[in-house]
Amino acid sequence: MNIQQQLLVRFKAVLAAIGAPENAPAPLTQSTRAGFGHYQFNGAMALAKSLKQKPRDIAQAIVDAVDLNGMAEKLEIAGPGFINIHLSADFISSRVTSINAESNLAVTQPQSQKVVVDYSSPNLAKEMHVGHLRSTIIGDAVVRALEFLGHDVVRQNHMGDWGTQFGMLLAHFSDKLQDNQVAETALSDLEDFYREAKVRFDEEEGFADRARAQVVKLQSGDEQCMTLWHQFIDISIAHSEEVYQKLGVTLTREDVMGESAYNDQLADVISKMKAQGLAVDDQGAVVVFIEELADKEGNPAVYIVQKSGGGYLYSTTDLAAMRYRSFDLGADRILIFTDARQALHFKQTEIVGRKAGFSRPETSYEHCPFGMMLGQDGKPFKTRSGGTIKLADLLDEAIERAEKLVAERDSGLSEQECKEIAAKIGIGAVKYADLSKNRTTDYIFNWDTMLSFEGNTAPYLQYAYTRIVSIFRKAGIDLNTIDAPVALQAEQEMALGIKLGQFVEALEQMVSEATPHVLCTYLYELASLFMSFYEACPMLKDDVAEELKMSRLMLAAATAKTIATGLDLLGIQTLDKM
Ligand code: ARG
Q1: What mean pLDDT comes out for the span 475-502?
Q2: Are 501 and 38 in contact, with CB atoms under 8 Å apart?
Q3: pTM, whole model, 2 decimals?
Q4: Any idea what the Cα angle at residue 31 is, between residues 29 and 37, rounded to 5°?
Q5: Where is this motif: 'HIGH' region (predicted)?
């Protein structure tokens, strides 16, 4: 249990005792302002009516009865009946001790859930571009945090590896191979390849027909066509894997469950919905009318599940995927990370899928939308010539820029060391800049801010970690095995200790809302509190008594471990030197 939950248990016990209704709200939160204690219980006001007493009297009754032994040292009633809770130094000290002594920062795991996470999911026709950066790194951070908390995660890379555009690509691909090109070189630049195929599709006589014929052959499982398709898919997945490796994300080939994997289930999805009268023929197509999403005139939304020529759609596949994830994988939660423009699609899919019985009622279906990455001009992020920015190029640039920064610092490190450091800083900066923004809003991509050593950035956090490591190096003490009594005296020690104890709360919030920025904000605040502590509370000065020094080093060690773990959950590496 985290601190908030431990306190809540004790307050809830008292509510029952003072005669509050069983489901009385019990709002207990971290205090957001200094001077209001560390946590606040604000439930007294809401009880005034049912208990027919003044809120302050109720607050007083709660304060008199609540047993916070071992946790808090002082309770105050403020304003109309807020209860400010001041945690005791001993309670916090013991937390700091456990963080240092136990593995996994002494985090107790909640009940484990089966969580299916659909993320990255690029379209194989094209090279991964910056739009997939967000899905990939946000999804990966959430996955890591879920696993850290003991959940059973199934990664699903729902790659766009099927559909009509593949007819065009295959037709072009097979021509190139006939010209004796090796498959890899024919596909060396997916972007170019796609463009060439599209030009031929639009302009070359007979090509479009051949492309369409390829689709039909592909969908009916024609062997030659499938072989070609497999080759194509393999090479493009390998391209994505290169990006994953560079980014340090945990996706592997085993996690690929592309659209094609559902192909043989689509006919059944349609016939089940038709049998229920949910899907109906409409102008040659098969559609579901969604009354719940009717427009102002009362016309229901139209959700197409099969095209007039018999072809299936993105939506059909998502219904099949929902059924597979809920029933076959037994998901408690399904999380899908795509940009916000797909929000309506997933809202409709959930309504239709639930009606069709493609989800167990208890499976929670959560589309996690994200905003766009914008350029300095506030417009969608593009190359100077207006093209889409390839993810691979962006990452290379990040590393190059970080190399320059590292070189400027003149840290006396070898060239090889500088290169390794630059890679960690560069990639970390790009990831953190994205993760630290509220997921749902658009954000402006800015090299200078993300690579800055000041502010809420990866380099700032990486530097805070490195600094602590170097303190331990100087002290000749092992950060990982330090064990000494912790006594919190200074205000800065107490503030840092409490923040350390709140790591789990941040993590749990991040995981339940699928919002990595919550963890980023936490880490940034933690590092900032450390800096204040570091200035006010010397550790290695000669006049610091040994006990005090060790107690402070315990705080520093717990901070380093928490930052390293937190960054690792965000997919960002730390450095012992920089
Ligand atoms: N391939 C899609 C795209 O790039 C994202 C797929 C997301 N997952 C899903 N189940 N639809 O937009």
Answers
A1: 96
A2: no
A3: 0.94
A4: 115
A5: 122-132
Residue type, 461: L
Tell me the two tokens of residue 510.
């991040």
- Ligand 1: residues with CB < 6 A are 118, 121-123, 158, 160, 318, 321, 336, 338
In the CATH scheme, what is the homologous superfamily, with its name and number, of domain 391-569?
Isoleucyl-tRNA Synthetase; Domain 1 (1.10.730.10)
Q: For residues 20-40, give the mean pLDDT.
A: 90
Spatial distance between the Cα atoms of 137 and 434, rounded to a whole number of angstroms: 8
Which residue's alpha carbon is nearest to atom 5 within ligand 1?
A: 121
DSSP label at 485?
-
Tell me if 160 sits within 8 A of 258, measured CB to CB.
Answer: yes
In 3D space, the residue among 550, 530, 485, 573 whose CA is nearest the CA of residue 90 turns out to be 485
Residue spans of beta strands (DSSP E) within 353-442: 364-370, 373-374
Ligand 1 binding pocket mutation candidate from 342, 344, 348, 365 (most atoms within 8 A of CB): 342
* Nearest alpha carbon, ligand 1 atom 9: 158
Residue from 158, 236, 269 to probe ligand 1 pocket by mutation (most atoms less than 8 Å from CB): 158
Look at residue 185 in the predicted model and tell me its pLDDT.
Answer: 81
Query: In this predicted structure, what is the pLDDT of residue 411?
Result: 74
Return the best residue to mutate from 154, 266, 338 for the ligand 1 pocket (most ligand atoms within 8 A of CB): 338
CATH 3.30.1360.70 fits 3-87, yes or no: yes
Amino acid at 470: S
Q: Which amino acid is at 480?
A: N
Give pLDDT, residue 181: 83
Ligand 1 atom at shortest distance from the alpha carbon of 118: 8
Domain 114-160+259-373, CATH 3.40.50.620 — does that match? yes
Length of the chain: 578
State whether the Cα torsion 385-390-391-395 is positive or negative. negative
Residue 373: Cβ-neighbour burial (10 angstroms; 0-12, 13-18, 19+): buried
